[in-house]
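Listing 4. Sequential folding, example run.
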Amino acid sequence: MGVCPSSFPIEQNIKINQDENQPKVDTNQYQRIIGKLLYLQATRPDIAYSVNILCQFVADPRQHHFDALLRFLRYLKTTLDKRILLSRLGGNDLVAYSDL
């Protein structure tokens, strides 16, 4: 069974806060996923803001935090080809493309 893709990593103008009324989720699972995302953002600068938002709740994640994380993972699944490739041979040249 597939998941519904997402075309952007996090909802625009989302207000994720620490709502004590939301049910708790597995803290270890949330922290493991966030840890992997922190490592991934080295090659995916487009996800830095979203990862920062999601990292704010690693101590006590709630259901709406986990829902936002799942949406973010759906975005990653649809954008696997967007990354910065770091060559083993080194080099300091940065090439950027724009469609403006």
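-- end of first protein; second protein begins --
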Amino acid sequence: MAALRAPTGFGESMAELVRVHRDSGGTVQLEVTGAPRSLPEQADQAARRVVQELLTNARKHAPDQPVDLEVSWSTGSLTISATNPLGPERGYAGGLGQGLRGIGERCRALGGRLSAGRTPDDEFTVTCSLPLEA
């Protein structure tokens, strides 16, 4: 049996997290725009954790709903967004759970920002923007 190799960068980690989500029965539509590149270590770790938390939340709160995951690279930032319909039996009471608070703290510690909430279309959207070093 071959040993499992851990992903070594954000792109590989993201692909692995998406694969695991799909293998567990989830639906993910992934869109990557811009030119991916290496990230500083702290930003790489934060980006991995953001994707992990977004997919975990989607599976937990709306398990039968598809997730639109967007990763956008620009000159000065990396933006990660996830949107999914709210589950049929679960509403959104407002506020952020522990996981979203944690990734919000990671984003802000790197000079980024996190927004999360219900959309007018009864979807839940989370967006994290991380600045990239020049």
